[in-house]
Write a structure and sequence with these properties.
Blueprint (H helix, E strand, L loop, with lengths): L1 H25 L5 E3 L4 E3 L3 H36 L3 E4 L10 E4 L5 E4 L6 E5 L4 E5 L10 E4 L5 E4 L5 E5 L4 E4 L11 E4 L5 E4 L2 E2 L4 E2 L3 E5 L4 E5 L10 E4 L5 E7 L7 E9 L4 E5 L10 E4 L5 E4 L12 E5 L4 E5 L10 E4 L5 E4 L10 E5 L4 E5 L11 E4 L5 E4 L8 E4 L6 E2 L10 E8 L3 E2 L5 E2 L8 E7 L13 E5 L5 E5 L2 E4 L5 E7 L7 E9 L2 E2 L3 E5 L2
Parallel strand pairs: 34-37, 36-44
Antiparallel strand pairs: 1-2, 3-32, 4-5, 5-6, 6-7, 8-9, 9-10, 10-11, 12-13, 13-16, 14-15, 16-17, 18-19, 19-20, 20-21, 22-23, 23-24, 24-25, 26-27, 27-28, 28-29, 30-31, 31-32, 33-34, 34-35, 37-41, 38-39, 38-42, 40-41, 42-43, 42-44
Helix pairs in contact: 1-2
Length: 534
């Protein structure tokens, strides 16, 4: 019905255009004037009657245009407000590939049953061919080493290194066994821990683990897991240990595992830790800013798709339930955003597989975010770029396409922050170029009113010889009250192009709505609105 109504409006709009054209043709000398209210045309009676008929069509068409305009604006708003934007297409269709953020900010995508590789450049939004691997690979792992090279393991019997500077691949060492569907984790000592996975002949999952040493280019065996497993996750904890979680123990998925184990690099041994509440595989595990690990979704016993999520606390070695996903899913991706939230995208379920949702660690809840432009379904990759955006590429239905999730940073209220001489009461995120993203919630001040505010911004850094006080935060009220507040501390955020700016609210700053800007290097940011609490 709605579609038919839209078509009718479009037909009326066409009549409007045609009527205007007819008037322009038949009345080239038309002149309208107002005289005591009515309109008069300096033309013959016959033409005047024809004019009235055309005017009726003009009026009807004009009404149709007005009716169509809100729909057009509504559609434009919907199309323009999406947090997802398409970026350049991959040069090859990719499934079961890897994507690795390099030190130069580019992303290396490799494999998919073929030896080809390619590079994504965030500055241009384009893909380019990289040199080819030495072997066809899929269901392998790719690990960025401390020296900037990338270690590819599995999907075959060998391992190889990619050198971004030379754009070359070279074989390195000889792993004890060929494997796939395993995990590879960079340890604090620079070595890489490879765990579990599918091996053959005969085809089976293994409990073996081995270490790669980049300094020597050699492999060595380390302690074995208590369970054989594949399709598991491995997460490096803040204490340097590695948490391996869930998976399957037998081919065919009949033995779904709920157990978890910890690897200690100092001893090379594994210890069993608390199991999850729900056994699962094809799930995700994400290290949160608070040090806890979020496990979400996956396939459970009997192959049922899970929406449940759990949190692991390394300090107690226990799991606790948290909010469930809005949509049950497996083989999805989970990416921590710079604001601490977790973006979960696509995955296997009954829908098309282009939906996404966000987990908020502060509330333990999930919320739906914009859907992707393309259905990814499964076996895609998601990579957080140095600019905070997330690059999603390939997938079972995504094929050649790639797109970006443009993160929105909002106000985050903090009760306390470690390594600060006083509590940091609020955190406001800004983004490039010197721009407040959206209206913030109330900036609550501490009980002593001696409140610090942290602002994150991009494209901002101190020049040689400059001090933190050269960066100024300006707060202006509608009554022209204005405060220029020098920053107390300005420092870059590691692994991101954000700069952290800390300043202190004046004790006598009145409550209410304020306009906030950043001043630095003769530049002034676009303004945003914040509300200062009592």
């Amino acid at each position: 019905m709605r579609r038919m109504a839209n078509i009718a409006k479009q037909i009326l709009a066409v009549f409007f255009v045609l009527s205007v054209a007819a008037v322009a043709r038949d009345f080239p000398g038309l002149s309208l004037r107002v005289e005591n209210g009515p309109y008069f045309a300096r033309n013959s009676f016959a033409k005047r009657r024809k004019l009235l008929g055309c005017s009726a069509f003009i009026l009807l068409g004009f009404v149709a245009v007005l009716l169509c305009l809100p729909l057009t604006l509504e559609q434009a708003k919907a199309d323009g407000s999406s947090l997802w934007t398409s970026t350049g297409d991959l040069t090859n269709q990719r499934v079961r590939h890897t994507a690795t953020l390099l030190l130069n900010g580019k992303v290396l995508v490799a494999g998919s049953g073929v030896p080809s590789a390619e590079l994504y450049d965030p500055t241009t939004g384009t893909w380019s061919h990289a040199s080819s691997l030495n072997a066809d690979r899929e269901r392998h792992t790719a690990t960025l080493l401390n020296n900037g090279k990338v270690l590819i393991v599995g999907g075959g019997l060998s391992a190889e290194l990619y050198d971004p500077t030379a754009d070359t691949w070279s074989l390195t060492g000889s792993p004890s066994i060929g494997r796939s569907d395993h995990t590879a984790t960079l340890l604090p000592n620079g070595k890489v821990l490879v765990v579990g996975g599918l091996i053959g002949d005969p085809i089976r999952f293994t409990n073996t683990a081995e270490l790669y040493d980049p300094a020597t280019g050699t492999w060595s065996n380390t302690g074995s897991l208590s369970n054989t497993r594949g399709h598991h996750t491995a997460t490096l904890l803040p204490n340097g240990r590695v948490l391996v979680t869930a998976g399957v123990g037998t081919v065919g998925g009949s033995n779904v595992i709920g157990s978890s184990e910890l690897y200690d690099p100092s001893s090379g041994k594994w210890t069993v830790t608390a199991p999850l509440s729900s056994a699962r595989f094809w799930h995700t595990a994400t290290l949160l800013a608070n040090g806890m690990v979020l496990v979400a979704g996956g396939a459970g016993v009997d192959g049922n798709t899970l929406a449940s999520a759990e949190l692991y606390d390394p300090s107690t070695g226990t799991w606790s339930s948290t909010g469930s996903l809005s949509t049950a899913r497996y083989l999805h991706t989970a990416t921590e955003l710079p604001n601490g939230n977790v973006l979960v995208a696509a995955g296997g379920h009954n829908a098309v597989g282009n939906d996404a949702e966000l987990y908020d660690p502060s509330t333990g809840t999930w919320s739906i975010t914009d859907s992707m432009k393309n259905g990814r379904r499964t076996y895609h990759t998601a990579t957080r770029l140095s600019n905070g955006k997330v690059l999603v590429a390939g997938g079972l239905e995504g094929g050649y396409s790639a797109e970006l999730y443009n993160t929105i940073f909002t106000l985050v209220l903090e009760e306390s922050v470690s390594n600060q001489s006083a509590a940091v009461d609020s955190v406001l995120f800004l983004r490039d170029p010197f721009r407040v993203v959206n209206e913030a919630d109330v900036l609550n001040r501490g009980p002593d009113r001696n409140s610090r505010i942290i602002v994150f911004a991009t494209s901002l850094q101190l020049g040689q010889g400059e001090t933190s006080s050269s960066v100024v935060i300006n707060l202006t009220k509608s009554n022209n009250q204005s405060y220029d507040i020098p920053a107390e501390d300005v420092r870059p955020v590691p692994n991101f192009d954000f700069t952290q700016v800390t300043f202190r609210l004046p004790d006598n700053l009145p409550s209410g709505t304020w306009t906030i800007r950043i001043k630095a290097h003769g530049k002034v940011s676009n303004s945003g609105t914040v509300r200062i609490g009592p």
